[in-house]
Amino acid sequence: MTREEVIRLLGVSRETSGRLEAYVALLEDWQPRLGLIGPGTVDDIWTTHILDCGQIARHVPRSCRRLLDLGTGAGLPGLVLAMMGVEGVAVVESDEKKLAFLHAAARSCDIPVTVIGARIEDLPRGTADVVTARALAPLEALIPLALPLLGEGGIAIFPKGGSLDMELKTAALRWHMWFMRHASLSDNRGSILVLDRVFADTRP
């Protein structure tokens, strides 16, 4: 898709569109040095990354006051969600070079986001209304990372590709899950998975 088509699908303001354009330009500038995104996706950043991440915003509850984006890398989806008006976004990354990019992007693109340089396991427990992560790990590994971070009534939102059916099947061996699955706007094989309640299966 073109930039214009993505902007139209996301329904963002001119100001937000400008921030997204500035972010994409910065990402393209840093990409040769840090390899922030897959090399095969550079020519299709607007669809593969901006639309894929931006569509998550429609699934974030209006009541959200703290969203944690785990293993954010280049700030995807956290920086994009913050630019789109999601409140209380914090992006979590432990790699120092990627952290340098995140700080530069937040500053130069005027993104209202908190950048946290830490391991996921070291984050405060039970403080997030929403936890998200993109291309970080299979669902069976994401759930035990995300679950301790969620406060009461919190949800997890994970964009997933064509392997979601298998990931759900594997995760169900250990977890009871209440979830909704939404078709992706950026990939006809993909889905946005929203986990509402998750409980460990304690059966012997």
Give a structural overview:
The protein is of the alpha/beta class. 36% of the residues lie in helices and 24% in strands. The protein contains 7 helices and 7 strands. It has a 7-stranded mixed β-sheet, sandwiched between helices. Helix 1 runs parallel beside helix 3. The chain is globular, with a radius of gyration of 16 Å. The mean pLDDT is 96.
Please render the helix and strand layout as text.
Blueprint: H1 3-10, H2 14-34, H3 45-54, E1 67-70, H4 78-83, E2 89-93, H5 96-108, E3 114-117, E4 128-133, H6 139-146, E5 150-160, H7 164-171, E6 175-183, E7 191-200
Helix pairs in contact: 1-3, 2-5, 6-7
Outline of this structure?
The chain is α/β, with parallel strands linked by helices. It is 36% helix and 24% strand. It is globular and about 55 Å long.
Descriptive key words:
36% helix; 204 residues; seven-stranded mixed β-sheet; single chain; alpha/beta; globular
N- and C-termini, Cα separation: 49 Å
**How many strand units?**
7
Poorly predicted runs are none
Question: Strand fraction band?
Answer: 15-25%
* Helix-strand category: alpha/beta
Helical coverage, percent range: 25-40%
Main sheet specs: 7 strands, mixed
Shape label: globular
Strand order of the largest sheet: 3-2-1-4-5-7-6
Radius of gyration (CA) equals 16 Å
Number of helices: 7
Averaged pLDDT = 96
Instruction: Give the topology string: H per helix, E per strand.
Output: HHHEHEHEEHEHEE
